[in-house]
């Protein structure tokens, strides 16, 4: 069952529990479905919290992994494409095998404003108006809300999770992860709040912003932005990966530019991993197949 301590004025209705059956497993997975979350920064949204078997263990504080596109993480019977990340099964296996520290997952559902909330604001401001206009043919970039989205996570959601669950407040136990645009915002969270997050995992990061061509301009702007933010003062973990099929076909050359930036600057204070998965495309089923790699990288017992 979920671990809750004391009332909170932040939630507008009582918290309740839903049971999700693991895909391909006879075991039940417990997920706390929090009441609809009202924010000072953004529109309301659903948030779920996954906890591992035996939670909570006496005297144990848990690491926390915040993940975007939360409705795609646990239950394929509820998703639009009938696919899921399988985060619950993967993490439980890694915990049982004692490969990672015990953790919970905070699954933040996306909304109709996904693009506006996940597109990193400060790198976008480095682009010329003509380039932004070109990129806007695929996405509406006029009302970008990524800074507000991160404020929602750091200033509103995180304090409430820490009041409701026995989690560590140390940055080395706090991580953030996502795929595609979720990869871009996970990196942005790490750069904007290095004192909060100890690492991020960015799968199939959507470097071009364009849906049709490997446009390099936003990638170069992101690198320029990171150059001004680095080095970090404390050890930080950063993971990237990509396939080469479907939308991932646009990523290898752009990811290589980001890899070169980090590999050629070993004083950034970043523990870095970047992996390619030939034959992989841009879907939850592909991310599920390799999810153990970034999770073990972020959460391994040091």
Specify the number of helices. Answer: 10
* Biggest sheet architecture: 9 strands, mixed
CA radius of gyration is 18 Å
CA-CA gap between termini = 29 Å
Known CATH architecture:
3-Layer(aba) Sandwich
List low-confidence stretches: 1-27
**H/E topology pattern:** EEEEHEHHHHEHEHEHEHH
Shape: globular
What structural class is derived from the secondary structure elements?
A: alpha/beta
Number of strands: 9
Strand content: 15-25%
Task: State the helical fraction.
Answer: 25-40%
Query: Would you state the CATH class?
Result: Alpha Beta
Query: CATH superfamily, called what?
Result: Alpha/Beta hydrolase fold, catalytic domain
CATH fold name: Rossmann fold
Number of domains: 1
Tell me, rounded to a whole number, the average pLDDT: 89
Q: Order the strands across the largest sheet as they lie in space.
A: 1-2-3-5-4-6-7-8-9
Pick out its properties.
302 residues; alpha/beta; Rossmann fold; nine-stranded mixed β-sheet; 9 strands; globular; disordered N terminus
Write the SSE topology.
Layout: E1 16-21, E2 28-37, E3 45-50, E4 63-67, H1 87-96, E5 103-108, H2 114-118, H3 121-125, H4 129-135, H5 146-164, E6 174-179, H6 181-192, E7 199-203, H7 217-229, E8 236-242, H8 252-263, E9 270-276, H9 284-290, H10 292-299
Parallel strand pairs: 4-5, 4-6, 6-7, 7-8, 8-9
Antiparallel strand pairs: 1-2, 2-3, 3-5
């Amino acid at each position: 069952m979920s671990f809750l301590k004391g009332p909170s004025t932040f939630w507008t209705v009582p918290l309740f529990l839903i049971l999700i059956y693991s895909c391909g497993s006879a075991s039940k997975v417990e997920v706390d479905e929090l009441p609809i979350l009202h924010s000072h920064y953004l529109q309301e949204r659903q948030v779920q919290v996954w906890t591992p078997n035996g939670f909570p263990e006496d005297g144990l504080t848990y690491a926390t992994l915040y993940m975007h596109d939360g409705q795609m993480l646990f239950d394929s019977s509820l998703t639009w494409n009938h696919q899921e990340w399988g985060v619950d099964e993967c993490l439980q296996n890694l915990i049982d095998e004692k490969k990672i520290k015990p953790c919970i997952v905070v699954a933040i559902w996306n909304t109709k404003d996904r693009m506006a909330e996940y597109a990193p604001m400060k790198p976008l401001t480095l682009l010329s108006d003509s380039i932004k206009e070109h990129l806007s043919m695929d996405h509406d970039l006029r009302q970008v809300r990524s800074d507000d989205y991160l404020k929602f996570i750091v200033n509103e959601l995180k304090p409430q999770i820490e009041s409701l669950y026995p989690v560590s407040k140390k940055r080395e136990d706090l991580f953030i992860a996502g795929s595609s645009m979720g990869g871009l915002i996970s990196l942005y969270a790490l750069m904007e709040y290095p004192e909060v997050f100890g690492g991020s995992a960015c799968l199939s990061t959507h470097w071009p912003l364009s849906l049709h061509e490997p446009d390099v301009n936003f990638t170069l702007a992101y690198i320029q932005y990171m150059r001004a933010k680095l080095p970090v003062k404390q050890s930080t973990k950063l993971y990237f990966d990509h396939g080469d099929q479907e939308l991932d076909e646009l990523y290898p050359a752009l990811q290589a530019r980001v890899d070169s930036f980090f590999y050629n600057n070993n004083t950034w204070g970043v523990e870095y991993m970047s992996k390619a998965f030939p034959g992989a495309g841009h879907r939850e089923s592909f991310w599920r197949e390799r999810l153990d790699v970034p999770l073990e990288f972020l959460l391994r017992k040091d």
